[in-house]
Amino acid sequence: MYFLHKKNRKAHVIYSLIAAVLAVSLLFPRGIGGAAEAYALSDGVKYIKWVDFDVTAEAMRDAAVLDIESEGNVSFSSLLAYLGAKYGGNFKNYKKSDLSYAYEKLSDSPDAFKDMKFYSYYKEAYGAVLDGMIGEYGVYEETDGRYEYKLKYGVKAFSPFAAGYHYSDYDDFGASRTYGYARHHLGHDMLGSVGTPIVAIESGYVECVGWNQYGGWRIGIRSFDGKRYYYYAHLRKGHPYNDMYEGKIVTAGEVIGYLGMTGYSAKEDTNNINVPHLHVGLQLIFNEVQKDGTNQIWIDLYELTKFLSSYRSAVYRKDDGEYYPVNPIADFTIPD
Asked: Alpha-carbon distance 254 to 58, whole Å?
């Protein structure tokens, strides 16, 4: 009898350990250490080495409304960081009541959750994705037949597709790709028509422009705080850009190029993509060693582009054949 009891007790312990490991792996898929294992060192400097950005468009919309309502006193990245810490990064069970609770607490004190486990990690991680998307900006608005310059606070980021142009998409992040070598798809494909004006999601400066055999005609734009690198690829054959060059400063909503199907060829200006589409990627950079080295972080943009679909830049065509925003914003984060 003792043998059977001991055996059952051992099995119970084993099953309990397995259940615990499974629970932790679901909460923090990168390992038992969870967010604690999300850091690396470079020259003694600690930096985030991975981010799983699984925030839903619904949660982003709700958090943005509260941020704007508070005029920035409660940032939507802080609100979402609380939810990230509460849910372990899994937003499938998102409840608006949880967001309301976070807003109430953060309205009373910006340090309300400083002692919450993993809150600081999610605040830095989600902040790296979102902090440039809401803020103060200037815009001209028509009032009684006159245009007046007004200061506003709100979303100052845009969908990469200009207003009035159709696209279709689905969550394809991580799908397999084989051209050149087997790899995972580290961006988001948005299918549309050749020539569709593509706009800058966020203000920044052009870090790279030109031909790449994988991305065809592509543009890389870095945010002014250096944390976000936007990658736009497969632009139009023959005329991919609207006056782009390395070092140029671009403003959110500005037309940077035109959708195409170039790439997958070592020969420049070649259409070798089967379906016209924009490949848009977002790399997070917490330390410059990540940019082209190890611990690169590319995030899933599907939900973010759903959030930004409500913010489209209206454009018009000038006599020179290029497209420009109808009502460009003035972004005060642009360096002097």
From this structure: 26
